[in-house]
Amino acid sequence: RQQLRQGLLFLGLSLALGGLALCLQLRSFWALVLGAGFLVLLCRLFLRGGMGHAGQLVPVSITLGNKQVQLTALRDSGNTLSDPFSGQSVLVAQCHAAERLLPMTTLRSRAPAVKCRLIPYRAVGAGGLLLAVQCDRVTIGGRPAGSLVAFAPDRLSAAGEYEALTGGGQYA
User: In what order do the strands lie in the sheet with 148-152?
Assistant: First the structure.
């Protein structure tokens, strides 16, 4: 569904830009204004859920078993982390959230009940693997989101404004 939407957006923008080029060739001011207005309308229609929310702080709730953690997440338009097998978007949370959900000392004893995996990531000047857990429920901004949560070993915010990063297909 996402690929179809992106394909239609590409086609529409290509046609709109071609129309603007034709308007420039015709040297018609009103045709140029109408074409530019259509291009702006097309961008607002198809790009409204994407980068318009980037930079917002949103509440996140993560539930695993009988434990629940409340966090604040930054909507990061550059965060495209996803599970390489399922393509599911991954919420990135600081490791202290993992400690509150699932004490690391008992992770091995609970391993059969907890679905863990390693998610490869790349960031500016860094890369590696993040431990990810399939949670029972994840909500971002009050809406259900993908249930995969990866835990970053370092602080995500130097000033402590947020403890998680969301992006990619998690805009809902």
Answer: 116-123, 126-134, 148-152, 91-94, 164-166, 67-75, 57-64, 137-140, 143-144
Hey, what's the torsion of the CAs at 71, 77, 82, 87, to 10 degrees?
A: 120
| DSSP single-letter state for residue 80 | -
List CB contacts of 53: < 8 A, sequence separation 6 or more: 75, 171
Cβ atoms 62, 68 nearer than 8 A: yes
| Residues 157, 39 contacting (CB under 8 angstroms) | no
Question: For residues 142 and 153, what is the distance between their CA atoms, to the nearest angstrom?
Answer: 26
Taking the chain (172 residues) in runs of 10, the rounded mean pLDDT of each run is 79 80 80 79 67 70 86 83 84 82 60 74 83 86 85 83 75 42
List 127's β-bridge partners, or say none: 122
In the chain, alpha helices (H) = 2-26, 29-47, 95-101, 107-110
C-alpha distance from residue 135 to each of 55, 86, 143 (Å): 25, 15, 15
Whole-structure pTM value: 0.63
- DSSP designation for 125: T
